[in-house]
Amino acid sequence: MPNSSSVSEFLLLAFTDTRELQLLNFGLFLGIYLAALLGNGLILTAVACDHRLHTPMYFFLLNLALLDLGCISTTLPKAMANSLWDTRAISYEGCAAQVLFLVFFFDAEFSLLTVMAYDRYIAICKPLHYGSLLGSRACAKMAAAAWASGFLNAVLHTANTFSVPLCQGNAVDQFFCEIPQILKLSCSDAYLREIGALVFSVSLLFGCLVFILVSYVHIFRTVLRMPSEQGWYKAFSMCLPHLALVTLFVSTGMFAYLKPPSISSPTLDVVVSFLYSMVPPAVNPLIYSMRNQELKDAVGKLFGYLLLHHK
């Protein structure tokens, strides 16, 4: 019976066998990747260069942009290369690296979104304590904890997943290496340990989600008691982008990993994985910049600076 040590490579899902459609697929992925690089790169540069944005909210947003760049760079370059060179192969080590980094970036991002909910809660519900509770050292510790929790979770899941014997071949029904698809290749009952680890992680993520929801209940109760419409607008402009990110991230990710097998199909799996792995990193910068005048001004100033020096 072959086990995981006898598998030297995996075969990823091919979107199409037609060469023209493969090139079209490459162009689509390239456009999404460039949009994510541009949007998140602008946020990183604007926050780093504009001293007015050196606040806890934008510090966490900078970390979010870094995680988004890492997440989309884990899956898309390999998918683009496979479409361009008409191949499906990914090495065993490359597949393990994809699982490690994907879990790392996603878990760290959700932890960071939880920290950002705490930041919004303190800013709106306890503004007089904002400076003392969210100083630069406290923010650095919370961001480091988010990154560290993601890394530890990623090591746990990668070690569990790739210690499972594989008996069902090496064809992965996904365009990148994903834990549920790897487990489909495992021998009967050998995957139960990783299922247990997944349940533990989902429980922790559910706890984070409850914390976010409770924070927003308090936030909206405080906002509704504000006497001025300007106060309402400022509060909602700070909170709605974050709430939109959480909703997009949680809905697509939970559906991908927790949907019942009865509604699972290769096409649905690909669509859902596309939504949770590519859409958030590409649209997060747009969501945050749409309702954030400070960020718009900083990006506008950055463009003006670049145009001036280009001349």
Describe the structure.
The chain is mainly alpha-helical. It has a single domain (4-310), classed as Up-down Bundle (Rhopdopsin 7-helix transmembrane proteins), CATH 1.20.1070.10. Helices cover 76% and strands 2% of the residues. It contains eleven helices and two strands, in the order βααβααααααααα. It has helices spanning 19-49, 56-85, 92-125, 130-133, 136-161, 179-183, 192-224, 229-258, 266-277, 279-290, 293-310; strands spanning 9-11, 89-91. Helix 3 (92-125) runs parallel beside helix 7. The longest helix is centred in the middle third of the chain and has 34 residues, at 92-125. The termini are far apart. GO terms for molecular function: G protein-coupled receptor activity; olfactory receptor activity. It comes from Anser brachyrhynchus. It holds the Pfam family 7tm_4.
Secondary-structure topology with pairs:
Elements lengths: L8 E3 L7 H31 L6 H30 L3 E3 H34 L4 H4 L2 H26 L17 H5 L8 H33 L4 H30 L7 H12 L1 H12 L2 H18 L1
Antiparallel strand pairs: 1-2
Helix pairs in contact: 1-2, 1-10, 1-11, 2-3, 2-10, 3-5, 3-7, 3-8, 5-7, 8-9, 8-10
Number of helices: 11
Low-confidence stretches: 1-5
Give the averaged pLDDT, no decimals. Answer: 84
CATH homology group: Rhodopsin 7-helix transmembrane proteins
